[in-house]
Amino acid sequence: MVTPGLWEAMEEAESDSGYPQELTYELLESMRRIDPGLNSFITVNGAAVEQARRRSGKGPLRGLPIAIKDSITTDGIETTCGSRILEGYVPPYNSTAVERLIAAGGVVLGKTNMDEFSMGSTGENSYFGPTRNPWDLERVPGGSSSGSAAAVSAGLAPAALGADTGGSVRAPACFTATFGLKPTYGRVSRYGLIAYANSMEQIGPITRDTRDAALLMSIIAGWDPKDPTSSKEPIPDYLGALDVDVKGWKIAIVKEMVDGGVDGDILRSFWRAVDEASSLGIDIEMTSVKYLGHALAAYYIIACSEASSNLARYDGLRYGMTGEYVGNWRKVFAKIRGEGFGREVKVRIMLGTYMLSAGYYEEFYLKALKVRRLVAESFYRLFKKYRLLLSPTMPILPPRLGEKLMDPLAMYMMDVETVPASLAGIPSASLPAGFSKGLPIGLQIMGPPFGEPEIFAFSARLEEKLGLNPRPPISL
Known about the structure:
With 476 residues, this protein is of the alpha/beta class. The chain has helices spanning 6-15, 19-38, 48-55, 96-103, 146-154, 170-176, 210-220, 238-241, 264-278, 295-310, 329-340, 343-356, 361-382, 408-413, 419-424, 452-466; strands at 41-44, 65-69, 107-112, 159-164, 179-182, 202-207, 250-254, 283-287, 388-392, 428-436, 439-446. It has 16 helices and eleven strands. The longest helix has 22 residues, at 361-382.
């Protein structure tokens, strides 16, 4: 069976009411055969086939299954955030994004593997073991939404939801030849998304192509009274944007994001994709984003600081991991967190606590916030002149398992292309743009605030020109 994309499956479900149930059953059977070697799922929804039968023909999704990152809460389905400290936690409610998928006739296929609490760029920091890349099982699929991207790439799900803080949707999309979108901050409700860094993270789709992402965004986007950070900005016609003519648009390449540090093969694929974009009648220039050299440091200061506060709630006493511990509260609290959190999570909690401590708050955290504002304002000025900005998505090809794991600086440097858009809160997508040594390469498309329609319009046209229909060796 070759698993269809979401749009193709939706069309099939329109003509055959039994198709969603049949597809869900086949996917679950395929997961039993293939996923032990891929490790893209942590939890499978045992009721998925019956739910597909009941929702068949309802809403635009008509009972079709969607994979969900394990940091997004699901009523009655274990949600662990890839961490031991939340093992066994079953939420009593759905996140708003999942609730909207269900209202549209969707079914939760299962919960996908991820870097613990979204802290990682490779998909190796999960308590449940690393996810592997369908294009090469000895390589990483990118993180932190590793399982969502690997599952879609391998054909174990027609589409998935991930969550992106500093590249956690775009990085795995790039490494697995899928399409991944980080929406504008506030465009998709964060209610029910287990927090890592509140001021940057957004739920976003990982799909086979642009059209499937536009379909999912038309379902999950919009204001939510449960999330005070969500925006009341009207929802545009995302699917209609796919037919917009991009001829005459002015687009820019960010100079700092193609200079030095980017693998030569990636740059060659990037420039070939830019040439194809030019043939669409688009005017492409080079531009510069001020203060970009400080973006990565500012991002990690802010993210770790927010994480140290957000993760203080996990004590093993109220939900998730529990133990037969006896002693004073301080010692029990330290023991549970010491055993429940993985190494990378502990490192980031300690870094964040240090940066928020007396004497360092002004030196690090406040300065990082100022850099964030300067980077954002620099982007906003450019979008008065250009429709979109382009760069490679990742500076390197997918590393081998373990290659970056014990080198935190090299791991953090992998995010150098993706964190600027996160700091600015602007939408950004990764589109498959080519291959090197049989490994995927992605092109990053950045748009103005609430500029998802422009991203979809350009991506759809470029997708047609590139003519890629990537299917990895490890796929259905």
